[in-house]
Amino acid sequence: MVKKYILSEQDMPRRWYNIMADMPTPMEPPLHPGTGKACGPEDLAPIFPMSLIEQEVSTERWIDIPEEVLEKYTIWRPAPLFRATGLEKALDTPARIYFKNEGVSPAGSHKPNTAIAQAYYNRLAGTKKITTETGAGQWGSALSMCCAFFGIECKVFMVKISYNQKPYRRLMMETWGAKCTASPSTETKAGRSILEQDPESPGSLGMAISEAVEAAVTNPDTKYALGSVLNHVMIHQSIIGLEAQKQMEMAGDYPDIIIGSAGGGSNFAGLAVPFARDKINGREIDIIAAEPASCPTLTRGPFLYDFGDTVQMTPLLPMHTLGHSYVPAPIHAGGLRYHGMAPIVSQLVLDGIVRPEAVKQMETFEAGLTFARSEGFIPAPECNHAVAMAIKEALKAKEEGKEKVILANWSGHGLVDLAAYESYFQGKLSNYELPQKEIDLALKDLDNLPKPRQTNDRTDNQ
Amino acid sequence: MVKKYILSEQDMPRRWYNIMADMPTPMEPPLHPGTGKACGPEDLAPIFPMSLIEQEVSTERWIDIPEEVLEKYTIWRPAPLFRATGLEKALDTPARIYFKNEGVSPAGSHKPNTAIAQAYYNRLAGTKKITTETGAGQWGSALSMCCAFFGIECKVFMVKISYNQKPYRRLMMETWGAKCTASPSTETKAGRSILEQDPESPGSLGMAISEAVEAAVTNPDTKYALGSVLNHVMIHQSIIGLEAQKQMEMAGDYPDIIIGSAGGGSNFAGLAVPFARDKINGREIDIIAAEPASCPTLTRGPFLYDFGDTVQMTPLLPMHTLGHSYVPAPIHAGGLRYHGMAPIVSQLVLDGIVRPEAVKQMETFEAGLTFARSEGFIPAPECNHAVAMAIKEALKAKEEGKEKVILANWSGHGLVDLAAYESYFQGKLSNYELPQKEIDLALKDLDNLPKPRQTNDRTDNQ
Q1: Cβ proximity of B411 and B260 under 8 Å
Q2: ipTM for this model
Q3: I need a surface site. Which of A122, A209, A439, B2 has the fewest CB within 10 A?
């Protein structure tokens, strides 16, 4: 039996897929934080190069991948798709479980798929320095590497709690030549104002975004890069799903169930969007976004306009949100600790194309151990959400006696996150679930913001 | 231009290559530590299953890889061979540099190639528990994973200084379900006797081997496994070079220079032996074993009979050695901190098939940074010895204006070794070279041991 399905470099997709061409409901536009009017390209020009802004609003179905990006992709792409035969045996399930292995990149996750593209377009636009934020450090390290490839200076604001928990990711960034600072920091106005209110703040992605955006707009030749949430990021990540479609064809299978871990939404969308297109065109697939019960943006946050950051500098985005002032609990899946969700993913949930489900922390680490001992590779804590959901669906298939085909995104390895496993071994982790009153409190700040045309009653999705 | 040369699973070699069939000079046998006579299979039976002992003494050229081992290999094999185009550009060299990427295994190094085989043969023989030692932790983690696959208990004695420097590797072992103890420990007679003499002992591979062997021979259903040095390990690792030969053919190139980092010899031999066979058959190739200047077994140690461990429990092996009582300096390339060298590699050096060269520590980390910033992947400190040598040869080719083809073994990634990079960034590392008087002192202990037929004058190889 074949274990890995590997494309040749010649078979690597040469175009990204943009699901905005196929959305059942057109996306609502981002709004200017000052005027409340739809953002024009000129509003985004201080932080992004124009080529990325064009992708952000594009409704072209296919977007050519530049040659230099393709060339860098081949360092780790095409990424293998593997059949988790060891896991299937361990679970004794009739399900066939496939994982797309995005852990093979030098940074160990899917993040370089968009980091390469963003660094490339920035270099083309003459950008000398890029600022960004990072949670667990997967995005920051990916961007650091790609800036090194293209000779661009890189500055990363890393959420303080992760900075302290994950020194190895900081070291990766430094090895690739970037500068990394714990956020909130004293280097920006935003950081200083947060520290004034709470000197012990553990930081959050929302805060780090504020700092990185400020550092970009206040410095010449400096742009900002975001590793998730935005439309152009989802476009770049579509290469995951496009490859997976070819590989499933090689395997002679088609997935009944698609699974990805969802934090900001990019690894999930990357795998899901080409299959979501099939679903929009009539194919029956269950597409599951697995999010942490401790930060349940899709399952418990309403669909509203909200800021992407804490200090309200970014445009207002139409998305599922727990409120920009919400500081997620310090669980270990740092990459999933974000108050919002990609507008594309949010809209697909609203339209019933994607089904969100929350996973409890202890279940994710149990799943990670089961996976590591049967398949070898140790998943990152973020990735464990998808692994746990795949296991859950495989066991359901066993109960029902059905030969389900499950395809999940194995978004990254956990070799740099082993301290989280240690906490788990030591019994220091728990099944924290976000209290409703915290959500209600954070959402109060959104009362005076503009509302999207569509809204949802959160109880529908639970 | 193609970046990666990837074999299909169907093209993966189904037989290991045993260079003992082709050695210019027959190997000298291991000797019993008590009698000084050649070891028979029965002498090794308390610590190894008979199938591995048979491989240890086999002169069959080809050995079939069992189906179950092949199946597990497919988790990460065939391993990619890649053209280091980014590095070539950074060096502006006419050389074509290829690396065989053994960092793609779940443990991050080449070690699982033999760990799988050893776990498999042990399970076949009914072994319930395997003990072993580990330096940097690459071998211990690899064996832990493979024991998990085959339902065997695993106990690892980890050199104390690495145990403290590399907590993540211990956590990998625990994630895969193994037990890991810092060595010297109080759990064995050997450990206790070492601690009596030096309670602050940083440990060494030689000491950890003593502990692991003792724990195996004094417990029922328990065997011992060694991750390098022995002939059967070199046989299993030959899959690296066999794949690389097919991949170089795909690339339409043949290497002028073969390079591997050499500690115990297994990743070096794994890549080198199939090419060494070509050299024995008349092909001109420069085959370089890159070892640390701080532990210069091949370049400064004589070829003698010596123990594999500190407490003199193992058979005497004919090899280049710095003396079994030598405790290597605590440099960060923990996996290369071993007093001896694989007898096969030692013999190939004696016969002029392999050329050893020592690399200084600072040069290895500089090379690692150059590599990471041009190729993305961050090499392990051990692997940096091969990277540094490849860079040196590529620059020599540039000076000479020659289109040399260089093939090196990229034996593992450094994501779990980033603390070593941090020490480098902080200026805490230096170019320690082993003083001659330390070597002379350690070699004194060998005066009364039997001598091999062949000897060498160390000055020849410098």
Answers
A1: yes
A2: 0.95
A3: B2
